[in-house]
Design brief:
alpha+beta, elongated, four-stranded antiparallel sheet, 167 residues, 4 helices
Length: 167
Amino acid sequence: MMVRVKPNALPWLGVSLLVFVLDQWSKAWVLSSLPEYTAVPVIDGFWNWYRTYNTGAAFSFLADAGGWQKYFFMVLAFAISGLMAWMLARTPRRDWRQALPLALVIGGAIGNVVDRLVHGHVVDFIQWYVKDHYWPAFNIADAAVVGGAIGIGLFGLFSGKSKPAAG
């Protein structure tokens, strides 16, 4: 008797690779072309290029922790990426609602890990603002992680799978 194996979603790691390459390419451009800590307007009143660095996590969480956080965030990113790759291996290839968000988080997490390894911090350069209200600067890896996390939450909440009735 032949058992048919359903194709898993590991080929979605190609999206992770694309995110990683775009992230690293954009950061190389930023490091070679943008001045540090100087706003370069893209769309007046909304968007600047602004080269800055983050030694912490989202919103500079633990940025002033003394250096140990660099290794903590690298280990955390590898652990989360490994877990999500494991989840991809168990996801049907056609289930893009689960595969795409996982792939986005993996690519973004690894992109920021490379920054921490190479530079000791993450390079941020996208700055959005309205009047005097500025969103913390971020990068393509950050956007992929946030987009993937939102997708995991939204598609998980609205997956259409009903839970068995308690009985």
